[in-house]
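Weekly sync, protein design subgroup
Attendees: M.S., D.O., the rotation student, P.L. (late)

Item 1: inverse folding check
M.S. brought a backbone from last month's batch and wanted to see whether the design step gives back something sensible before we order anything. D.O. pointed out we never logged the input encoding, so this time it goes straight into the notes. Structure tokens as presented (447 positions):
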């Protein structure tokens, strides 16, 4: 039994899903470099986010967590980041405007590079290769050499996260996220769609309200909340070497923070109670997420709550339910009841993506159906309504681009169209139109 936590105490426990680095000296050298690098985020920002999530845990705010399944080292441009931000900001506007509930915006961005895999090997025709584990570890190219874990990728991931964050900060604080610019967030391919037009109407109303306030004598240029947006970063804390190298003691509070992102989550495959991932997460002061799938038991939920939030701090722990559309209404209620009955202040959110992935029979491409994603969300809201608990947020895989990775939506993507613009390096993402459509539907479920 562990008594003292430190950033590397997880090493004494089994750590699943860690790459087999071929050269340990190189791996440790890379970690040393990371330890000396400046943090990516600041403890004070994390405490601010924690306060917002506490409101969400108490039913007074809603968490929108969204972005890529796996960020790419290759597809890394100002444009892709801006497009992703635009669609998340649009979704937040739709949700806030329709429900009157503050929305906490968290990207799967600026660090979402490590992927857990169901199998250590992947098949390409007759050849078997080590699985792709995200660009922080290896390359997705189907080639033996490209699949060898390379520790210098952790340094690239750090630098790329820093440059993404730099852009995110300038977009969200430098005028682009000004509420008077809501209509400029619509991308061309979205503008002509039904969702795009519905959004335009909301944007028009917001602008009208702003003009009204200005006419009443309110100097909008002095209202910082109208011009700037808080946008937080998150990723799955999978590679424990990387995460612990980014963990620093905050001189103000004396607490340890993982300064690679504002909040991190533990995945469904690495949430075992006696494992290294929960041990690592338990000692950092960042707000934490933990995915829970359909095999989760009541005891698992209570164990996770006790391990990650023994002090029962609201907003510290988000349980991200990813049950599958057909199972959620059976599986989720006893878990929510267990936490409620033991007075654990869980922030419950729904990831309607990961329980609903399948391979298309024609192309073999991994996909998800938009209507099935909505079905899981409906189930999630229904369960909370029945239990009198707060459906505190959604966790979505999306991109701002016009991709054809998920089936359906108002301007339907059909199975034979999947390969037209299938760009993901991991799981299928909603495109900009589907994301906006989803925001409208979630807003309706919330009010
Ligand atoms: C993910 O969020 O990309 C993921 C792998 O999820 P899960 O751990 O829920 O399978
Ligand atoms: Co995914």
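Designed sequence read out in the meeting:
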């Amino acid at each position: 039994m562990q008594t003292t936590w430190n950033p590397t105490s997880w090493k004494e426990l089994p750590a699943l899903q860690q790459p087999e680095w071929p050269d340990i000296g190189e791996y440790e050298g890379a970690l040393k470099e990371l330890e000396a690098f400046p943090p990516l985020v600041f403890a004070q920002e994390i405490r601010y986010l924690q306060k917002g999530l506490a409101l969400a845990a108490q039913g007074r705010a809603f968490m929108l967590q969204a972005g890529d399944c796996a960020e790419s080292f290759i597809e890394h441009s100002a444009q892709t980041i801006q497009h992703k931000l635009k669609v998340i900001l649009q979704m937040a506007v739709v949700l806030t405007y329709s429900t009157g509930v503050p929305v906490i915006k968290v990207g799967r961005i600026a660090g979402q590079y490590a992927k857990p895999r169901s199998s250590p090997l992947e098949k390409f025709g007759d050849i078997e290769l080590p699985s792709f584990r995200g660009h922080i570890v290896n390359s997705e190219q189907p080639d033996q050499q490209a699949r060898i874990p390379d520790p210098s990728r952790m340094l690239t991931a750090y630098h790329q996260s820093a440059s993404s964050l730099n852009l995110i900060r300038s977009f969200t604080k430098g005028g682009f996220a000004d509420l008077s610019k809501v209509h400029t967030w619509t991308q061309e391919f979205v503008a002509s769609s039904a969702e795009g037009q519905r959004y335009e109407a909301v944007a028009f109303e917001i602008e009208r309200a702003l003009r009204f306030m200005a006419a009443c004598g309110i100097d909008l240029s002095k209202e910082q909340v109208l011009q700037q947006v808080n946008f937080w970063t998150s990723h799955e804390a999978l590679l424990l070497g990387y995460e612990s190298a980014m963990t620093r003691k905050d001189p103000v509070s004396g607490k340890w923070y993982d300064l690679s992102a504002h909040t991190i989550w533990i995945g469904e495959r690495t949430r075992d109670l006696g494992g290294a991932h929960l041990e690592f997460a338990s000692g950092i002061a960042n707000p934490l997420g933990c995915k829970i799938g359909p095999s989760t038991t009541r005891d698992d939920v209570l164990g996770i709550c006790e391990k990650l939030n023994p002090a029962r701090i609201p907003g510290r722990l988000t349980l991200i339910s990813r049950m599958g559309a057909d199972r959620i209404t059976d599986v989720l209620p006893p878990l929510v009841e267990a936490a409620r009955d033991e007075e654990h202040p869980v922030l419950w959110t729904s990831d309607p993506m990961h329980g609903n992935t399948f391979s298309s029979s024609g192309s073999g491409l991994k996909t998800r159906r938009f209507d099935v994603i909505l079905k899981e969300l409906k189930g999630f809201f229904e369960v909370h309504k029945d239990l009198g608990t707060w459906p505190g947020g959604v966790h979505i895989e999306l991109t701002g681009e016009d991709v054809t990775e998920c089936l359906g939506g108002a301007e339907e993507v059909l199975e034979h169209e999947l390969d037209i613009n299938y760009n993901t390096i991991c799981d299928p993402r909603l495109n900009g139109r589907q994301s906006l459509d989803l925001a409208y539907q979630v807003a309706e479920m919330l009010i």
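Discussion: The chain has a mean pLDDT of 96. The pocket of cobalt (II) ion (ligand 2) is lined by residues 69, 354, 397, 426-427 (CB under 6 Å).
Action: P.L. to compare against the previous round before Friday.
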